[in-house]
Amino acid sequence: MLFMGEGFRVHATSATTGGGFLIAEIASRPGGGPRHLHSHEAAEQYMCLDGEITVITEEGVHRLAPLDSVTIRPWLAHTYRNLGDAPARLLCTLSPPDDMEAFLLEVCEPMDDPSAPLPEVTREQSDHAMVLAAEHGMRIHDEYDPAVLQGGAVPRG
Question: 51 is in which domain, residue-wise?
């Protein structure tokens, strides 16, 4: 599946975990990842599997190498980005999964050829995802300021 231009593969759902959590693997192209900070009721953990992932929260920046992880508490504004020159993969766990799982499964699109390059996200796709996010209880914050990657303050939106 595709989620906002990223490869998205679900490993476990609320149905298979008795409502406990969702686990998904994300394949991120260079420059990939959501530009807007977002927050939701689920706690979330990102674990980098390959490449490098930068997780940006309203409290700071976490640079993840393979097998590094960061846990994000509920309602903490955050996003991830692949700021490297190579593809990256990360594992994402959400608990409780309810609203986020429904959002992710609604916004994902079929991926006809998993070996094809990951596409750029269109403005229409981004706008549609923003509407669905709000419908599923997410808060969308401002885009992060790239200065945070050099140690600047992370804006609250």
Answer: 2-150
Residue 157 included in any domain: no
pLDDT in tens, 100-151: 888 878 877 777 776 677 777 777 877 787 788 888 888 888 776 666 665 5
Q: How many domains does the chain have?
A: 1
We report the CATH number of the domain holding residue 76 as 2.60.120.10
Q: Is residue 138 part of a domain?
A: yes
CA distances from 21 to 5, 25, 47, 57 (A): 23, 14, 15, 21
Are residues 93 and 21 in contact, defined by beta-carbon separation less than 8 angstroms?
Answer: yes
Q: Mind listing the pLDDT tens digit for each residue in 28-71? A: 989 888 878 899 999 999 999 999 999 999 888 999 999 999 99
Residue 155 belongs to some domain of the structure: no
Interatomic CA distance for residues 125 and 107, integer angstroms: 9
